[in-house]
């Protein structure tokens, strides 16, 4: 990501087309952290400030949401149900809505509600009712961004609440120009007030446009979208007429909502008359603070734990490691989270994904006869890297002339063990070797070996275990990694666990290599990439005989046979056999069950 190291980049451009001024325009100061003002038809900039800096864009996201919904050409008269699931899962901590959960609204009115009143619930519901569901919708948003050549833009949700929905004002100019081609978007974003009608139950809600300039006769606004988020400040994207000229204006990160109006007024007067203006000292201090945050490339925000949360689920949602959350908040890994507990989450703004590929990129143009596997081989990258870069699946079709985003990593480090922070571990009540191994980053086999334990792995509260810190790291280049992958066609009755077990790999690796999200369902005929990186270590790692030991596991609230089987890498059928559970029997919190855990 290109970092801008000055606050004010002002272009002195001649505007003979603006009748009120001749020659060069004088410099102007604006309150926002980033801004782009340009000609609607040519994109020629009149004014730019930090225009290439990647920043959170909040609800300006909903312009892309509306385009993707309309591109799908689903019935606008279809009633959509506003589900509790969407409210709980896609609204994050911002669980405020006037919509009654379970009520229904047409797709057309849902678009209007999302654009005009910036309803986050409406945007999420639209995405969930997309063909293929919510995750497919997000993939479509990113494909649309790339088709518009918005190469510094990335979306992770449909409503803009996630801080990793990022873009630049330069990219957003392209978004606004594209959105202007949709009559519905122009209409909805420039309607001052309206009323929408729900059913099941029947009620109505009044809407007011979030942009005050739309409600003023002093402004000729042709398209508009506002955005507001704590980490993103107040933002605005508009198409408007100024002194007879059609102008695109994109503003990112103002410290107050009123500052958007003030900045737009400054630009309007500046373009029409050439008159410059200044900004208050308090605004300059805000800019210094926010730009310092951008320069640091990371930002921290508070997160309130909700029902069903775990450290792992929160980390997965924000694309960071569980250990980062544990370390930042000084958590005890063995203790669960409390509903309402406040956590700090730090995100790297330069890495919207754990496998960032949207910056410092290059492109490959698909040729006749190309396939994803062939392209990956040509470019000495893995198929999974190609899929993740372009939000594709192994079954996706590509066509000649299509441009694929490429990032070729120089080297990849594959580390087999993580160095433990301490050389010993004191066993606590309820501990077992499986959980200790996960916590300290030492294999079960090594724990048994270094502590002369029996093969059952018997340990006792108060016992001190020695930990080993021998870390073997082998560096392989991407070409080596490419040669260790193969493609598997899913058969009837397959599960990710069964495939991983059959092909001697890990479920987590399959999920990572194929860019799957948690809960991904596979179907017969699907093509998935099977990683076999471990083959590169045959010269230094001897095959080991699989061993096992029995542990007693106490069922916790929220546990299911499926979740326990997934955690301990066993099958549901095995758990039932080991514990004499019949096919209809359920488990309950506090129940103790026996598990046979494998280790190498």
What keyword list fits this structure?
five-stranded antiparallel beta sheet; 23 strands; Beta-lactamase; Membrane-bound Lytic Murein Transglycosylase D, Chain A; 600 residues; disordered N terminus; alpha+beta
Write a structural description.
The protein has 600 residues and is α+β, with helices and mostly antiparallel strands. Among the domains are: 178 residues, Beta-lactamase (3-Layer(aba) Sandwich); 62 residues, LysM domain (Membrane-bound Lytic Murein Transglycosylase D, Chain A, Roll); 114 residues, Roll (Membrane-bound Lytic Murein Transglycosylase D, Chain A), CATH 3.10.350; 53 residues, Membrane-bound Lytic Murein Transglycosylase D, Chain A. The chain is 30% helix and 20% strand. The chain has 20 helices and 23 strands. The strands form ten sheets. It has a five-stranded antiparallel sheet, with helices on both faces. A two-stranded antiparallel ribbon has the order 3-6. Strand 10 and strand 11 form a beta hairpin. The longest helix has 17 residues.
């Amino acid at each position: 990501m290109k970092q801008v190291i000055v606050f004010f980049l002002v272009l002195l451009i001649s505007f003979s087309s603006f009748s009120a001024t001749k020659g060069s325009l004088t410099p102007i100061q604006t309150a926002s952290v980033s801004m782009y003002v340009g000609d609607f038809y040519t994109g020629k900039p009149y004014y730019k400030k930090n225009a290439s800096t990647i920043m959170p864009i909040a609800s300006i996201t909903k312009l892309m949401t509306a385009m993707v919904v309309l591109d799908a050409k689903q019935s606008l008269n279809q009633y959509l149900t506003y589900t509790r699931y969407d409210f709980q899962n896609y609204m994050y901590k911002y669980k405020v809505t006037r919509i009654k959960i379970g009520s229904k609204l047409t797709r057309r009115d849902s678009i209007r509600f999302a654009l005009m009143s910036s309803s986050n619930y409406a945007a999420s519901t639209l995405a969930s009712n997309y063909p293929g569901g919510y995750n497919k919708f997000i993939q479509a948003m990113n494909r649309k961004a790339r088709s518009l050549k918005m190469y510094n833009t990335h979306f992770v949700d449909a409503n803009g609440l996630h801080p990793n929905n990022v873009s630049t004002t330069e990219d957003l100019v392209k978004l606004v120009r594209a959105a202007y081609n949709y009559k519905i978007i122009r209409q909805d974003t420039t309607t001052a007030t309206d009323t929408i009608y729900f059913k099941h139950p029947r009620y109505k809600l009044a809407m007011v446009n979030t942009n005050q300039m739309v409600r003023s006769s002093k402004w000729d606004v042709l398209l508009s979208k506002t955005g507001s988020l704590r980490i993103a400040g107040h933002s605005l994207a508009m198409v408007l007429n100024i002194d007879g000229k059609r102008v695109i204006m994109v503003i990112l990160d103002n410290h107050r909502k009123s500052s958007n109006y003030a900045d737009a007024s400054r630009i309007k007067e500046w373009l029409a008359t050439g008159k410059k203006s200044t900004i208050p000292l308090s605004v300059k201090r805000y800019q210094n603070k926010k730009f310092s945050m951008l320069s640091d490339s990371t930002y921290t925000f508070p997160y309130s734990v909700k029902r069903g949360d775990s450290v792992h689920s929160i980390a997965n949602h924000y694309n960071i490691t569980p250990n980062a959350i544990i370390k930042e908040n000084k958590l005890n890994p063995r203790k669960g989270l409390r509903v309402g507990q406040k956590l700090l989450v730090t995100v790297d703004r330069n890495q919207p994904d754990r496998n960032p590929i949207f910056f410092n990129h290059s492109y490959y143009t698909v040729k006749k006869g190309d396939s994803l596997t062939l392209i990956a081989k040509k470019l000495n990258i893995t198929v999974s890297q190609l899929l993740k870069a372009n939000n594709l699946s192994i079954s996706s079709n590509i066509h000649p002339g299509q441009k694929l985003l490429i990032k070729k990593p120089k080297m990849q480090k594959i580390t087999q063990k993580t160095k433990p922070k301490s050389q010993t571990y004191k066993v606590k009540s309820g501990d077992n070797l499986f959980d200790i191994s996960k916590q300290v980053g030492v294999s079960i086999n090594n724990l048994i070996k270094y502590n002369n334990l029996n093969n059952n792995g018997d340990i006792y509260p108060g016992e001190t275990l020695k930990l080993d810190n021998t870390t073997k790291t082998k560096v392989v280049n991407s070409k080596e990694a490419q040669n260790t992958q193969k493609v598997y066609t899913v058969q009837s009755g397959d599960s990710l666990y069964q495939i991983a077990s059959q092909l001697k790999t890990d479920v987590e690796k399959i999920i990572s290599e194929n860019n799957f999200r948690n809960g991904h369902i596979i179907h017969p005929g699907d093509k998935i990439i099977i990683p076999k990186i471990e083959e590169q270590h045959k010269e230094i790692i001897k095959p080991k005989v699989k061993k096992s030991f029995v542990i007693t596991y106490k069922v916790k609230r929220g546990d299911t046979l499926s979740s326990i089987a997934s955690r301990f890498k066993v099958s549901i059928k095995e758990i039932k056999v080991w514990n004499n559970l019949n096919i209809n029997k359920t488990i309950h919190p506090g129940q103790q069950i026996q598990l046979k855990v494998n280790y190498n």
